[in-house]
């Protein structure tokens, strides 16, 4: 009897050890690859997970591990920021209207979890924020006047070596002389500098974005989505109006194969392309196509301010 009791305890201990190992595997190898909203739900599983998810080291690890487009920020017809998730259960932010910022803003651009907004009062200051953590920074006043609607790009790549975000904000605006000027803000120096660019991209249609680290563009041509990738990395240093080929097209995507066919649907254009995601619009209806999974999804009807753009967003815990 004693021998049977010992064997039972031995098997119980082994099972408990296996369970603990599996829990550790999930904690170390699965949690960092989840989006921020899912992680907030996972923090209710147990005390250990809650403490882990709340640490700066975990936030840093997650911002380097999770990089998928999770949804889109846009301005409503009332001018209020809002968020359209690809999956409402998995992706989201606690305050899509961004009321935690000190003034009403317009959403300008986003990159790897950071969102750039521009204030509507005074000199229209730029703000960089993380909508998940509600942490934000107000940038110093630029040296130049960027005008009412500058073209703004946020450049940020998560790094294992930096626990705080090291980013740049590039603003293009009409020059008083001719053409366009560029002013760039660096978080490293906390200052602006005027920069010039000698190359102009060839005339293009559709939306510009980043895919696999390269500039890409996408547009609708009949019943196809046409996606091209910048093939010449030195195009910005070449002579203007050079005949060198700059773009390489990837295989076309047939709309009838990836999206619901309907005679009433009139594909207006690609409104966003980035990562593996293409967002198309038909009036107030939006459809998303995943180029990697070759799967589509109807995101429903959304009433968007036609003047404002649509900004892709990664649901990240990145620290500012």
Automatic annotation (TrEMBL):
Query: Keyword set for this entry?
Result: Receptor
| Domain F-box per the UniProt entry, residue ranges | 32-58
InterPro entries documented for this protein: At3g26010-like, Beta-prop_At3g26010-like, F-box-like_dom_sf, F-box_dom
Domain F-box protein At3g26010-like beta-propeller residue range list: 108-197
Protein name in UniProt: Anti-Muellerian hormone type-2 receptor
């Amino acid at each position: 009897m004693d021998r049977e009791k010992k064997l039972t305890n031995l098997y119980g201990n082994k099972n408990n050890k296996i369970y603990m190992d599996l829990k550790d595997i999930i904690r170390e190898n699965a949690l960092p690859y989840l989006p921020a909203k899912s992680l907030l739900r996972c923090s209710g599983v147990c005390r250990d997970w809650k403490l882990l998810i709340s640490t700066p080291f975990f936030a840093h690890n997650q911002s380097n591990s999770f990089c998928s487009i999770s949804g889109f920020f846009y301005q409503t017809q009332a001018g209020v920021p809002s968020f359209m998730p690809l999956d409402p259960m998995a992706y989201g932010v606690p305050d899509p209207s961004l009321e935690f910022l000190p003034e009403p803003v317009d959403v300008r651009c986003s990159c790897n979890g950071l969102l750039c907004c521009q204030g509507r009062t005074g000199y229209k200051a730029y703000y960089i924020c993380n909508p998940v953590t509600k942490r934000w920074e107000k940038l110093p006043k630029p040296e130049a006047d960027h005008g009412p609607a500058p073209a703004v790009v946020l450049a940020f790549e998560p790094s294992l070596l930096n626990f705080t975000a090291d980013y740049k904000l590039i603003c293009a605006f009409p020059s008083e002389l001719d053409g366009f000027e560029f002013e760039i803000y660096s978080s490293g120096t906390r200052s602006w500098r005027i920069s010039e660019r000698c190359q102009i991209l060839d005339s293009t249609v559709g939306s510009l974005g980043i895919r696999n680290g390269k500039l890409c563009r996408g547009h609708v041509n009949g019943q196809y989505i046409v996606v091209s990738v910048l093939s010449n990395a030195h195009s910005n240093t070449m002579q203007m109006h050079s005949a060198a080929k700059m773009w390489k097209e990837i295989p076309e995507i047939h709309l009838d194969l990836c999206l619901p066919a309907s005679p009433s649907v009139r594909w207006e254009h690609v409104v966003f392309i980035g990562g593996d995601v293409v967002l198309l619009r038909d009036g107030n209806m939006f459809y998303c196509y995943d180029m990697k999974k070759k799967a589509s999804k109807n995101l429903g009807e959304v009433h968007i301010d036609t003047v404002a753009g649509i900004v892709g967003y990664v649901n990240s815990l990145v620290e500012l």
